[in-house]
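Issue 218. Parser rejects a valid record. Input:
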Amino acid sequence: MEASIEAKRNKFAIPVKMGILIAVIKVIFSTIQYKWFLENWAASMAIVSVSFLLGLGLLIYTIQLQKKAFGGIISIKEAFQAAFIAILIIVSVNFVFDQLYMRVIDTTMIDRIYAGRADGLKNTPNAATKIEELKKDLALEKKETLNIGGLFLLLMKQVIQYSFLGFIFALVISRNSSVTTQ
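Output the parser choked on:
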């Protein structure tokens, strides 16, 4: 009982540690993808999928650790708080990393992404038309300037998307906390 009281006082310890751990893992996966697999669309999507699923699994584990620290009983609010804190760290770290990688470390990244997409489209029906559309999209994207407001909106969109999943996980895990009062 004493451990659960202490855990509730420090409700941020587990989500912060796990958020940092998940963010580091996702940065490693992103680095591998960006460095070696960006031009290969199938391999790139495989790495993205593994990274995403691993991140979700670790997010669920974060909520479960928080539940255990709270003595096996956790409210939906407490479960979502744990998920949300971890999500903020994960998304923010990855967003900053992606922007730095794309704008500082490898300024040809956008070209490489589009080359990989074009390669993936070569064996599809109407490949030439789709590749031309892709080239137009690339030209438009290159014309866009760095806009802090737009970057912030993109970051918030990612936080909201992940938060929906975090809420679902929190709901499921908190429902498994049966509170019996007599």
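Fixed in the parser; the record now loads. Residues 76-105 form the longest helix (30 residues).
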